[in-house]
Predict the structure.
Amino acid sequence: MAAPTAGRATASGPGRLLVLVYGIFALSAGARAAVQIATRFSDAPVAYLLSALAAVVYVLATVGLARSGLRARRLALLACTVELVGVLTVGTVSLLVPDEFPDATVWSGYGEGYGFVPLVLPVLGLAWLRHTAPDRRSREGR
Amino acid sequence: MRPGVAAAVIAVSLLVGVGIVALALADRRPVLWLLGGLAAVELAALAQVLVAVVVVLRGERPDSAATFAGYALASLLVPPVGAVWALSERSRWGTAAAGVSCLVLAVLTVRLRQVWG
């Protein structure tokens, strides 16, 4: 059992499905960034570095959600927040300055290349973290 | 890539994936059926990669070899790793996750065909 202050486990129930999807995005974003950087980095360095950043964020979110405890919860919270800011920023910039993004990243066009899952995922992640968060009243002991 | 093989893999993974998600919605968990379905999906993925290897050995090449190899490797890993992660949770959500890992193979197979060119 997790300590009461750590809240409910984020990897069980719906979290099992969420961590699976995060893991798949960590794998695909990581592989995509690795191929892009290894084979044609000079074509679009900004886009490829953002792909790599996205991959790191997905890995951290997967680990944070899959593990239990307060530190894992903070890691997941940070990763999901960066992810949401990232997909909104990169999505907007990729529409405004398409020349900087000749090759798509996971977050281009708000993740349209991935069925907009990259846009929905951080929202679900943050909602799930909130839902499983430790109960403030019990922690403060009234 | 052989279009027929990819179509068969997509059909098997969609069939098994949708079937497992339906079981999850009905809150049922017939473990032997789940394992059988997941094994069929993994066999399909394995057959597809073997066919691709044979085709490459005969001299055909995908447009982007590195990307193709990455997707091929992912197509072999996702069903078993996803299934272990999913089935270690004994709830309808675990069952649903197993179904989703099958559906992901269908998506990966579509991408494999696109990447081949």
